[in-house]
Amino acid sequence: MPGQPSHDGTETELAIDAQDVHVTYADGTTAVRGATLRVERGEFFGFLGPNGAGKTTTIKTLVTLLHPTDGSVRINGYDTVTEPQAVRESIGYMAQETSIDRELSPRENLQLTCELYGVPESEREDRIAELLDLVDLEAVADTRSETFSGGMKKRLDAATVLVHRPPVVFLDEPTTGLDPEARLRLWEYFERINERGTTVFLTTQYLEEADQLCDRLSLLQDGQVIATGGPEQLKSEVGVDVIDLRLADATDEAKQHATQVLQRLDAVGDATVATTTGGVTVRSPAVREAASEVFAALDDAGIAVESFDVRSPTLDDVFLALTEGSTEESPATGVASLGTEVVQ
Ligand SMILES: Nc1ncnc2c1ncn2[C@@H]1O[C@H](COP(=O)(O)OP(=O)(O)OP(=O)(O)O)[C@@H](O)[C@H]1O
Fold this sequence. Notes:
By secondary structure, the chain is an alpha/beta fold. It has two domains: 14-230, Rossmann fold (3-Layer(aba) Sandwich), CATH 3.40.50; 235-341, 2-Layer Sandwich (Alpha-Beta Plaits). 33% of the residues lie in helices and 25% in strands. A six-stranded mixed beta sheet has the order 6-7-8-3-9-10, sandwiched between helices. It has a four-stranded antiparallel beta sheet with strand order 2-1-4-5. It has a four-stranded antiparallel beta sheet with strand order 12-13-11-14, with helices on both faces. Adenosine-5'-triphosphate binds next to helix 1. InterPro entries: AAA+_ATPase, ABC_transporter-like_ATP-bd, DrrA, DrrA1/2-like_C, P-loop_NTPase.
């Protein structure tokens, strides 16, 4: 909800203001090394990175479950270390593991959460009805949750996060492991809560998810933010175009051969070449101009191309360009996932 006053009565600009955050665990592992995140009220903000990049550690620090070893975090104007209670009252946090009670129905789960958050009794019934409607669970409102699909449990979990009407919600990989249909329904729900004015901070491994939903996003690698911007801005800044080539012979050997041929090709300049399920992908600023030379070089090497696609970059390409990946296995089509794509 934009324009929420901070605790000292002044208008604060930012929903999330994390400055140069470092987090080192007790065993000496430094999971976050200087993350700065500034999220405006009402934004839908994405936080992307492969497994182990430090997303969960960062989100736990933002929601007061971990203290930064260095740096500072203010959420809705409150400091996470000196005012943790005020921060908690002003946020919703959906962890990776669902926190609903499976023995209880959606209505009972929401009643319990209302009690925990001290929602006035007179408001509970309406609030619960509104949330059940929001996540499309009215029809099963009084059914025990243990029978629900993964997607339904996630939707209920997401509803419990909103009972106290927090201006900011933190969602830690909410769609991981869900089938595409369940994922799409959750996306709709997240869009709806954002349209109502809630600031959303979403961590995800799914680039398509971030591309679809987020106003802006930060890419995280090895505990460091390597880029921040709108999806289109990041794509244009990376300045590459892409050719996806499907090879007639898509064995590992043939793909490696094609990779070597293309890496030697001067015409594609400073290209990155990655193998995909069906062939190879070339990312380069010069790729459109060099397309005919790409085909000629492959032909000369006796490599048959079954089909190809010259396209603009996706967020997947942005990430690979920024991390200077050159030989990663890339799905190139479908829902791209950093988790499967970037070999650290
Ligand atoms: N409690 C802990 N103690 C020590 N190291 C930890 C702890 N939790 C996480 N780590 C390490 O910190 C790094 C970042 O982990 P984190 O879970 O924050 O990454 P992530 O991006 O959320 O990954 P995932 O997508 O797998 O959840 C990893 O190297 C991880 O092994």
